[in-house]
Amino acid sequence: MANLEFDDEVSRVVEEFNASAGATMRRARILRALGLKPGDRVLDVGSGPGNQALDMSAAVGDTGQVHGVDAAESGVEIARQRCSGLDNVSFQVGEASDLPFEDEILDVVMSSQVFEYLEDVEGALAEMFRVLKSGGRVLIHDTDWGALLWHSSDPGRMARVMEAWDAHLTDPHLPQTLRRKLADAGFTGVRAEPIVQVETSYDPTSVSAILLKFIAGYVPSQGISEDEAAAWAGDLEQLGASGDYFFSSNEYMFMATRP
Fold first, then answer.
1. Which CATH class is domain 8-257?
2. Each residue's pLDDT tens digit, 153-192
3. 41 near 67, Cβ under 8 Å?
């Protein structure tokens, strides 16, 4: 596995991705599923640039608190800037497997597009369980990259590129085993809901078009030549121009309760 390096260019693309209609829809779906109430204390594990925390801050109100923890200092700094002036939001550097919180003090813990990168999923779930109050709720959102459909005029090349892309993840199929992992961690009432992203036209500001930038920039580090990566991206853009574009990804929200 070779992680994406979050340099200035990647950070810029992350900001572009989070501003897209698809990412905005995803955050709204997660917010509705969380069912936050005024006064709730919430933790976002892997809070990144703070977009989800910003959305949650209004739901918990002045009597609540939104905390964000991220392993990347650069992400924490961006999140603090994004949420500056909000007294009910705070961020700190920390690891999912060693959360900097006392036992049983949080009402809700959530994490979006993070667990598929973790080496120690079981340890991170144990930490979530530890910091939640009895009756507290957990939500974990991740993608199953094996359930992605992307029309290409060269399916073989598409398969090679996506196989190389999988290398940036620890588990590209995490949702398939997450129910059991949550139950083994002690959570009850585990359920799942899908978030399906579907695009039938090419829009430079869409989720798939911005994802294309991530992938084309990453896969040369995994043995795909820069020429092949450029040809792959160019093919998708051409399919968009000819009206033959199709993209679909399946993401899943897993929700459970600490007894």
1. alpha beta
2. 999 999 999 999 999 999 999 999 999 999 999 999 999 9
3. yes
The residues that bridge with 188 in the sheet, in sequence order, are: 257
Cα separation, 165 vs 225, whole angstroms: 13
233-242 long-range Cβ contacts below 8 angstroms, 24+ apart: 235/152, 235/153, 235/154, 235/157, 236/150, 236/152, 236/202, 236/212, 237/202, 238/153, 239/151, 239/152, 239/153, 239/202, 240/201, 240/202, 241/202
Tokens read off for 224: 């795909």
Kindly list the domain boundaries of the chain, sorted by start residue.
Answer: 8-257
Mean pLDDT in residue range 94-120: 97
Measured distance CA(102)–CA(130) in Å, rounded = 8
Helix (H) or strand (E) holding 57: helix 51-60
Question: CB within 8 A of 182, min separation 6: which ones?
Answer: 125, 138, 140, 190, 254, 256
Place of tokens 């911005």: 210
Residue type at 156 in one-letter notation = G
Helix and strand tally (H, E) in the chain? Answer: 9, 8
| Dist CA 136 CA 34 (whole Å) | 11
